[in-house]
Please model this.
Amino acid sequence: MALQRDDWLDVARKVDWEFRYVDEREVYPEVVSGSPWLSHESWKNWEEAYRNTYREYVQNQLVKDDSVFAVRDALGKAKITERLDPAWVQLAKFHNGAIALGEYAACLGELRMARFGRDGAWRTMANLGALDEIRHTQIPLMIGQDLLKFDSRFDWTHKAYHTNEWAMIAARHLFDDMFTAANALDTAIQLTFVFETGFTNLQFIAMAAMADGADDHVFEKMLASIQTDESRHAQQGHPVLRTLIENGGKEYGQYLLDKMWWRSWRIFLALTGTSMDYLTPVHARRQSFKEFMEEWINDQFLKNLEEFGLEKPWFWDQFVEELDHAHHSFQLGLYTYRQTLWFDEPVPSPEERAWLEEKYPGWTETYGSIWDNIEKMWDERGELGTLPYSLPSLCNLCQLPTAFRGPGKNTACTLEHNGRKYLFCSEPCRWIFQQQPERFAEHQSVIDRIFKGDCPTDIYAVLDWMGVEQHGKDLHNGEHPWRQKRAAVSA
Amino acid sequence: MTERSEKKLKTYSMLQTGRRLPSNYELVSSRLHYHYPHNFELSNENPVSKWYYQYRESSPLQAHDWEAFADPRSTTYRGYNELQNDKETVVDGLLREIDESNYDDELAAEWVTFLHRWYGAWRFPVHGLEMISAYVGQMAPVSRITNAGAFQSADEMRRIQRIAYRSAQLNARRGGCEPGEQKAFWEDGEPFQAVRELIERALIAYDWGEAFTVLNLVIKPHLDRLLNEELAGVLAATNGDTMLREIHFSLNEDALWHREWSRELARVAIADTPVNADRFAAWVDEWRPRAVAAVESYVSVFEQAPVRVDANGVFARITAAAEEDVKAALATPVG
Model:
């Protein structure tokens, strides 16, 4: 009779032994394995719930891939974007650029855990995680190439991470800090516990639901399928955090949680927040970004923290307050600096504005008036009137424009460190910097590079330096149907 | 859809090579690392950045164009699962047949004891190989090498899990060979100690070029033959355990691919920068004696099997074949 998995899997995963010819500290150096350094004795009970075998893995993944590619083949590589909402197509370009090679960087993080993770069961799980991340790179690369013939800016699916485009520098900075250049222990907590368990639910499940509403079934299938891998390999974080806390590392665990919560929040509001509330067609919006955040992250993830006796991050009140405005402010920044993007940005239509007011009471007063002004500038001065005249200021931690201010409130702040002045979008970004200044201090933001002469100052030369050949524009090229209708009525 | 038709691309701009469209393998595997060389968006003082800059950017093994390497099997993620699922289906069939035919009842008690002592514990050194493959993958300067390292690492997991399954299956039928006890043979059994020393020392060879060379040009050509072809191959069949040979025939297909892509990587590295041949040779010269010592020490067990196989012959076969492998890998490319 065939054996059950539990009859043999432990002896295949618990494969640590006592080193005789080298020291355990040499095999797992603290700089790549993580701090505090603990001997294997502390890690030997490492376990997670999925307990996938290699045999199950290759079989299951084949089935999953088949179902994604069946949708791609059935819908045909042709005409897929022709029936999609134009704003949604921008979302797809934004998402592909930000995600495809970021997933590949996560493959390195998984391989680091597969080598420097401290127990055989952990390393086994991470090894499968590395394969997952290869998958999450290869599927979007294939789908992105299908779309090139409709829009050459899907080139950014592959090229984005190789450019100096400011948003991509922000993404690289975050991911290098989170996993590409992080030790195994930090990677397990930052990537798999905070980012994947806490946040990627939102990106993959919620966006899949919206993709369904937007009729983009290839995108929907891809996201939903990727999420099934994420929820498996995200399990690595729990036992690592548990071991850390059991061995006196609770304070450090809280630090990693707070840091990566804030950093994940920044990237999510910038990518997912603006995508959900401005680039998704109104009829496809299942919930607002804020509602998703409250349901998925605040409710579900907070339960995880209780399990470990961890506190809410210290900046919780600021985070909750930002749910109402940060991505709306950021969206204005994206629109204003749209020439620096590889996708186009819309002005919200009257229907979208009504939806925004319903979901975010007070939106009209705070943000509607600014969009009114942008429309007025289009009326009076055309495109030039709507473009920026100055460089944005960028945060020296998250690398994003310091554009998260709430109504009447600017959260930016500064710090002097070793004779250099640093600017931050917010107290939490400054706090993160201050905890490990040696990790971040040398880095130069795009604006620092411009002032230092490392990149050009002329706007079009800057765009070339960023690799932005086809500049992002107003989605309607300034010909907003509702403005034209208004003009016709008043004439 | 926005109407903007500056120039239509057929593939990604960074992957364009003249008129030819990239193959599917090239499309999904090429130029995926943004951080090589010297391009992490953190201070250079960050310990993991420093680790990369020391062991990857400053490795003696350097090439102008690592992207010239292509996996001879053109392994994509989907292709990998297809291939391995087929192989695993074959092994599932063999393991099922063992159950259904009461195969284990026919094995000699001495052979069962032999396997308990000298076979099951191989999952420990193979886990070392898995770890080092994961290391080579994460340190490689280009993604095509990273992918090969990641898939190879997963192949080693496959081998560990099949050894574990087979050991548990045999114990369930025959008893007295509890896999949980086998670590002691690895840690204390004299014939294993040179293998253990080899693996432990290789785990801390952190220069990525050295790690690749030691793992794939030195250790695996010796140990894969020792385990898959000799112990679980010739010796098993000699002792009437042909099913073990069949299982490891399948596992050895993975090892043959590891050898194949490694040979290709060495060829590309030398064609790009001829002095790399000397660098490979220096690492091979340093490590081969340890690998040879490991084989020499372990083959003594071949004399302990119920039906013996001449240990000297095994030793000679493995070391000669491994030497031929290195010669072929480091041969000066023609043209």
Remarks:
- The two ends of chain B are 50 Å apart (CA to CA).
- Confidence is low (pLDDT under 50) at residues 1-5 of chain B.
- Chain B has one domain: 71-330.
- Chain B touches chain A through 90 residues (CB under 8 Å).
